[in-house]
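Reviewers of the previous submission asked for a worked example of the structure-prediction workflow described in the proposal, so we include one complete record here. The input consisted solely of the amino acid sequence. No template or homolog information was supplied to the procedure at any stage.
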Amino acid sequence: MKLKDKELWLDLYEVAEKIQKLEPWRYLWDMDLLVYLCKPLNKVFYCSVMGHAGMHRAIAIYQDEQIHGLFELAKNQIPENILINYQECITCNFISRQETLPKNREIIKELGLNFRGTWISFESFEKGYEPSPINIKQVKIMIEALKNFYMMFRAIIEQGIKVDFENGEILARHYDKEKKLFLNYPAPLMLPEKHYDTIKADDKFEEDIMKLPQTEMEIEYEFLNYVPIRIRDNKEQDGRHYYPRARFIVERKSGSVISYDLINKNNYENEKDYVIESVKFLINNFYKMGRPKSIYVRDEETKMYLKDIADKAKIKLIVKAKLKSIDEFYNSLSRMGM
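From that input alone, the workflow returned the following structure tokens.
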């Protein structure tokens, strides 16, 4: 480890130990958000404290649009098999040695740190990947986020700042250039806007698709989520393992699987190519089975990709966090040990 990197890691551990002594999980629930508007990095950090219910103790840092994943998880409707798709963040964990990733134990040893009982470690959760130790760029981000979280939390317990978390307030923090100081203040929660693309179909598609009979069939379609199955060869150069994507078409009423594939991301040049191919894949199935009455999808992003196609084909699009037939298929895979 380079000397500069070691100094950054030690700086990070120093602030983490300060936070540990304050035990924020005794005071805050995971949806009691402390939000730092970081102008130097042009980012908004949403800080969520885990462990109030006595389980996993951690500080999760969500950057910008990543915060939407926390609210999806808060609905308690996402099946356990695919929770990893809605957990994009970096975390500061206060856990046992056994729960600490082996690579994090190596980092701790290299830094010359010793823990008894509770170990402190840091993990990155990125959609499509196994949880992994944070890299040096993320160390810098974590230092900035946690130092400001520490000051915000102190403002609550030492200065008595009152925040109505139950009614949607957050504690916000930013640096005021005119006053030359940081300000901490209650504020209404404002989430960043999410932008979705739509795959447009041409007029010829509408003319051709409407020649197909419309059936009473209801289908479930999923193609954006990854499944946490480790495949030995699915490994990046930095050592991180990535998951395959699952592409399902299932008849909703009977649970009959029409199509099921595990997709390797390296089969496509980019995300857009995969999405376009997945939309075409669905259309090709229309020509085999007719136009279904409705299509159930798991989230708004999938809905928006399919919206123009469904509108032109006069098919109803329905968003359900739980797709009963697909989820049962996920469960059957789990029972088989996949």
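The first strand starts at residue 34 and ends at 38. We consider this example representative of the routine output the project will generate in years two and three.
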